[in-house]
Amino acid sequence: MKTLAVIVPCYNEEAVINESYRRTKDVLQALPNQTEIIYINDGSADRTRVLLDAIAEKDPQVKVIHFSRNFGHQPAVTAGINYCKTDLAIIIDADMQDPPELIPGILELQEKEQANVVHCVRKSREGESFFKLFSAKMFYRIMNSMSEVQFPLDTGDFRLIDRKVMMEFDRLKEKGKYIRGLISWIGFKQVPFYYEREARIAGETKYPLSKMFKFASNALLYFSKKPLKLAMSMGFIAVLVGIILAIWFTLGKIYGFTNADSGWTSIIIAVIFFGGVQLITVGVLGQYIGILFDEIKARPEYVIDEKKNFD
Ligand code: UDP
Ligand code: MG
After folding, report:
1. How many CB atoms sit inside 10 A of residue 165's CB?
2. Which of 51, 73, 126, 132 has most ligand 1 atoms within 8 Å of its beta carbon, as the pocket-test mutant?
């Protein structure tokens, strides 16, 4: 019988922790497998730490990792995978948007298909704003058109991975991890599991617009060089237009079919437009240089303050 860990990143989740633990535990207890839950407290400023410690105190099958500060959702999941020793692991959110009651079904599918990854695809999403739904839909489609790797659409980090995938994951050296993308990239046998995503049981989203934006731009920059190619294409188009205009106006001067003197407006437009194109291009370059800068420093992705129930 395979051993199973459930990996749960938590940031300021005091409103959901106890309920989340109860529901997950109920599901795990009904399984024949040996199971554990790994909570990663991502530097919460509320009572999350106290609540998790109390759970770990009573239940030795609950492991807790406390970060020294808020490092973010992806580093939290990374730590969960790094410290996981079981045959299978399921990554799940603390807010119960991905219901733990689906775990038996996911395990069954894994067993039946002998899959290395079961990624959970949302058929619908409850209790999310129009903006979140729209931006998420657009994001996954843009990512697929830009990236060299193809990702399953409408799939978050809610998924099962096996030991083989965890071992490959641990070998990845990049610091800015877009986990769902990296797991697709790792390959092996990956199968979809369809489900309806529920609303958060309590509390608020821990992904404000700023974090969402950083997440999306990180994903794009780490998985695609297309923005650089796009910048170069813009440059080529601008040069082409410039050559055509130069020929046109030179001939126009010679044969007298243009009146180039009164060209103030066109000059200003061209100067501003190409100034903008150049700044955007430099900005895109800057984004990649920023990533190189971060990667070359090679700081660890997270710092652990304390671990509970790891022997
Ligand atoms: N989370 C985290 N660190 C962060 C932000 C979020 O560990 O900096 C956790 C959060 O506690 C939750 C999961 O990541 O378990 C997903 O966050 P959330 O539900 O707020 O995102 P949403 O579902 O609104 O996209
Ligand atoms: Mg959520």
Report:
1. 24
2. 73
Specify the DSSP element, H or E, that contains 118: strand 117-125
Is the CB of residue 49 less than 8 Å from the CB of residue 39?
no
Q: From the CA of 134, how far away is ligand 1's center (Å)?
A: 19
Cβ count near 260 (within 10 Å) = 11
pLDDT for the residue numbered 260? 64
pLDDT in tens, 155-173: 889 999 999 999 999 999 9
Tell me the per-residue pLDDT of 172-221, one tens digit each, with 9 for 90 and over: 999 999 999 999 999 999 999 998 888 888 888 888 888 988 888 888 99
Q: Which two tokens mark 51?
A: 């609540």
Q: What angle do CA 162, 165, 170 make, to 5 degrees?
A: 120
Q: Is 205 in the pocket of ligand 1 (CB under 6 A)?
A: yes
- How far apart CA 25 and CA 21 sit, in angstroms, is 6
Regarding the beta carbon of 16 and ligand 1, being less than 6 Å apart is answered no
Which pTM does this prediction carry?
0.86
Residue 121 CB: number of other CB atoms within 10 A?
A: 16
Does ligand 1 have an atom closer than 6 angstroms to the CB of 93?
Answer: yes
CB atoms inside a 10 Å sphere around CB 138? 11
Atom 11, ligand 1: which residue's CA is nearest?
10
Nearest CA to ligand 1 atom 8: 72
Q: How far apart are CA 52 and CA 40, in angstroms?
A: 9
